[in-house]
Amino acid sequence: MLSVSGGASVSEAPSKARRVVVGMSGGVDSAVAALLLKRAGHEVTGLFMKNWEDDDDDEYCSTRQDMIDVASVADVIGIDLEVVNFAAEYKDRVFSEFLREYSAGRTPNPDVLCNAEIKFKSFLDHAMTLGAEHIATGHYAGVRAGARGGVELLRAADGSKDQSYFLHRLTQMQLARVMFPLSGLKKTEVRRIAEEAGLPVYAKKDSTGICFIGERPFREFLNRYLPKKPGVMRSDTGKVVGEHIGLAFYTIGQRKGIGLGGQSGNPEGAWYVAAKDMAANELIVVQGHDHLLLLKGRLAAEDLSWVAGEAPTVDAAYGGKTRYRQADAACRIALPEAGRLEVAFDQPQWAVTPGQSVVLYQGEVCLGGGVIRSG
């Protein structure tokens, strides 16, 4: 049984058919989400969002093919399809912040901001003008009514695909309007359903690139928008070991692309980015994956957002994630002042990165989090 907002299920006929607009990306997940909702008796419309236009003709842009795939899927399922252009909103609300963060030496997570500002704001607003009661996406996450009112954001059944981390900035209003038909499915089941239904995208490779960057080389993309500002690369002992091309082009914990070779046959001789000295324009690097400078027991975060509707209490134990593909780490929190979160982990965390998000969980419930400022 697949739970969706409002207590309905897409595995059985709903007590009340709803008008649902499904965000369709051209991938198998959103295609199956639309299929399941249609099978459950809902009135379904597909919506394809075009969010990027700057280099629509280059080899890395898949927008045109994605649109063709969405149209083919909509035809097989038997639903109407609308295409909407949110490129201006995306550039203003997401990309500009993306560049500001990189210019400040941090490593932002644009997918988190894209969900809050575009996929569940601009998309939701547009869907409401179409008369929709709910929107739906192919995200792997769940939502249910809370025991004390409101709604709760849940992890997906497929822990390896769970995307609640990327959704932690949604508001209660947004979450109450969302349906996640894939919440109870494994990815293998999603592909099987798609193949059995004759959906042409059943074997389509998952996209792994940032939403507007796609699969292109990341440094090459950044170089179009941010100037190179070379400087010294220094070890933790203060020794100059090389030169960097610009602090914006590196991230904490990075090993590849630094330009420093480790000791042959010795993985502990590999170099990692450990810190950035913005004032001196210096990149601090260390040798060894488990170097002390890469391990942080505490962090501070700002720009807080609580999808649970309120900040968590400070006298409880939580699970925290400082990056998407990471197991929960036991932690305690403090809220010393408005807009500031401090997290203390039971065990030091590797490569805590300013600009990324720290997200808190209590069991299967995602509570929200903030943007890491220091570790």
Features of the shown structure:
23% helix; 17 strands; Rossmann fold; alpha/beta; globular; 375 residues; disordered N terminus; SH3 type barrels; Elongation Factor Tu (Ef-tu), domain 3; single chain; 5-stranded parallel beta sheet; 6-stranded antiparallel β-barrel; 3 domains
Model description:
By secondary structure, the protein is of the alpha/beta class. The protein has 3 domains: 5-196, Rossmann fold (3-Layer(aba) Sandwich); 227-289, SH3 type barrels (Roll), CATH 2.30.30.280; 294-374, Elongation Factor Tu (Ef-tu), domain 3. It is built from 7 helices and 17 strands. It has helices at 28-39, 63-77, 87-103, 110-129, 172-176, 187-196, 218-225; strands at residues 19-23, 43-50, 80-85, 134-136, 142-145, 151-154, 178-179, 231-235, 240-244, 271-277, 282-287, 295-305, 318-321, 329-337, 340-350, 357-362, 365-374. The strands form 3 sheets. The chain has a 6-stranded antiparallel barrel. Helix 1 (28-39) runs parallel beside helix 2 (63-77). The protein is globular and about 65 Å long. The protein starts with 18 loop residues before the first strand and ends with a strand. Mean pLDDT is 89; it is low at 1-14.
Write the layout of secondary structure elements.
Elements: E1 19-23, H1 28-39, E2 43-50, H2 63-77, E3 80-85, H3 87-103, H4 110-129, E4 134-136, E5 142-145, E6 151-154, H5 172-176, E7 178-179, H6 187-196, H7 218-225, E8 231-235, E9 240-244, E10 271-277, E11 282-287, E12 295-305, E13 318-321, E14 329-337, E15 340-350, E16 357-362, E17 365-374
Parallel strand pairs: 1-2, 1-4, 2-3, 4-7, 8-11
Antiparallel strand pairs: 5-6, 6-17, 8-9, 10-11, 12-15, 12-17, 13-14, 13-16, 14-15, 16-17
Helix pairs in contact: 1-2, 1-6, 3-4
